[in-house]
Amino acid sequence: MIQVHDLHKHFGGFRAVDGASLTIETGSITGLIGPNGAGKSTLFNVIAGVLKPTSGKVLMDGEDISGLPPHELFHKGLLRTFQLAHEFSSMTVRENLMMVPAQQSGETLWNTWFQRGRIRAEERAIREKADEVLDFLTISHVADEKAGNLSGGQKKLLELGRTMMVDAKIVFLDEVGAGVNRTLLGTIGDAIVRLNRERGYTFCVIEHDMDFIGRLCDPVIVMAEGKVLAKGSAQNIMENEAVIEAYLGTGLKNKVAAEIEAERAQGGGHGAQPGLGKGTGNGPAGVPA
């Protein structure tokens, strides 16, 4: 669905994205990980039209979308969420969802005077759609709550819900687990999997928690210094020496390799690997953005 060819984004002399090339297959849940400053969020911003590329191309279903603004990409079915949720805090959760569909009849002054019946029918249909989304995400109980009062995890579910109010084809999720407790993170993960399997959504996910990535994502792409370092299954990525070195540096690489080998010998290797799982200060469960 998405092909990125030799993409560059420079800020003066700093090359945030430095020749990255990758493919996001239709119907996949692709993970994107990497150490601090790897260029992950900048790559998202370029693909989603928030930033214009310095050079290179982004294709969507074979069409060159490089540099198109976000509102045009929105209409093509490409949506992006952010690490910090962007809700309308003084509006209810339901109202936040009802704001999403574009070109509503009530937005035109002429229609507010002469097409009131049409507006009411349209709003009724949009409200029904919003309630369906709230049921799907298991947050119907906060439908009438002000969005600004939600927890971090509920706000992330609300952002996911916004993508369901339109015909999204691919959704880029930036640090969906940031500030979210484990229970709600599981709920978010369940919703992503259901949207993928039942509604055909394609996802690309930046996330620090390798347990979450390992559960949802295949393949996983690793970035470092603005380039793509590796691509593969979550298990293969966590055992990749170049990836371990990118996260932890050469000084710890041999130690981590020894820990992985020891864990294998004890019959482990099913979860996050030493130095790359939760519970370590530098692993992807708390990996720097």
TrEMBL record:
Positions of region (Disordered): 266-289
In short, the EC number is 3.6.3.22
List the PROSITE patterns: ABC_TRANSPORTER_1, ABC_TRANSPORTER_2
Task: Give residue ranges for domain ABC transporter.
Answer: 2-250
Pfam families assigned to the protein according to its UniProt record, in alphabetical order: ABC_tran, BCA_ABC_TP_C
What is the protein name stated in its UniProt record?
Branched-chain amino acid transport system, ATP-binding protein
Q: Which Gene Ontology CC terms are recorded?
A: plasma membrane
This protein's record includes keyword Nucleotide-binding: yes
Q: Which UniProt keywords apply?
A: ATP-binding, Hydrolase, Nucleotide-binding, Transport
